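In this section we turn from sequence analysis to structure. A common task in structural bioinformatics is to predict how a protein folds when a small molecule is present, because the ligand can shape the pocket around it. The inputs are simple: the amino acid sequence and a SMILES string for the ligand, here NAP. Study the lines below before reading on.
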Amino acid sequence: MSARKVVLVTGASLGIGAELARVFASHGHDLALAARSRDRLEALADEIAASGAASGIIRSGILRPIVIEIDVARPGAADALAARLLAEGASVEILVNNAGFGLIGPASALARDEQIEMVDLNVRALTDLTLAFLPDIRAARGRILNVASVAAFLPGPGMAAYYATKAFVLSFSEALWFELREEGVTVSALCPGPTASGFGARAGVHPGMLDSVRGLTAAQVAQAGYEGLMAGRRVVVPGFGFRVSAWFGRFAPRLLVMSFVARVQMKRRLPP
Ligand SMILES: NC(=O)c1ccc[n+]([C@@H]2O[C@H](COP(=O)([O-])OP(=O)(O)OC[C@H]3O[C@@H](n4cnc5c(N)ncnc54)[C@H](OP(=O)(O)O)[C@@H]3O)[C@@H](O)[C@H]2O)c1
């Protein structure tokens, strides 16, 4: 077994993933940061190393996170990540599957290849990474944090494929939690509501609507995710208002839920 036990965070270059990396680092965890933007990852690794050195809390004397520039949606990415970590003498104790994106608009109007690319990242890559690192995580009695969304609780006309990808993440995570609960491995689904990050611009949210997000900050979402994960909670929905939305999504009549979501997404969308 390798000496260096890391928290692997995908999509750590920006938004919720970068904040999750900061929270883990502030609690003394050693990190591996994965995303496509090397410059952003290097800058974050420097920042974490500097703050760890200043506070002296990073354990094992390892100060700088491992930086891995990778497109996690490409075939073979999980094996490439595992090989890179092995070469660094590291094994994954906690996996944070955070990389993901959304697309706003009716499924019939959005590009087919982009929607499939989203399913590839949000669903296939997340599943493959989980399965690839499960042996290490089980051996370490570690943890998995999968970033879903409040969208996971409801069908989402106007973002149909995105909501469906997050329903998969929630269902997969809860079932894994059940399968692994007696082995001392915890699995948590983090389900944020709208959060200011790079997400809106990538999804095609109207720029005028980006500032109208009245959700939590990415830092607040990350803090809630960390606390929920460490407490072994199966599902973590940060913010009281979003817990109400999740409840509404689960128990209100389906047609009512879909009319509501369709109206919201129509308003948020960039004009075609
Ligand atoms: N913001 C919200 O309103 C919100 C709400 C609920 C759930 N979420 C979920 O939260 C997660 C993080 O989103 P965010 O809001 O933080 O968005 P963000 O600011 O756009 O960050 C997305 C991160 O994912 C990385 N990424 C994207 N494609 C990737 C790929 N193919 N391979 C590797 N990394 C990739 C990006 O880095 P690179 O571009 O450098 O690769 C970036 O670090 C997503 O799963 C999202 O669905 C977001």
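Residues 10-17, 35-37, 40, 71-73, 98-102, 121, 147, 149, 192, 194-195, 197-199, 202 surround NAP (CB under 6 Å). As an exercise, try to locate the residues that line the NAP site and compare them with your own expectations.
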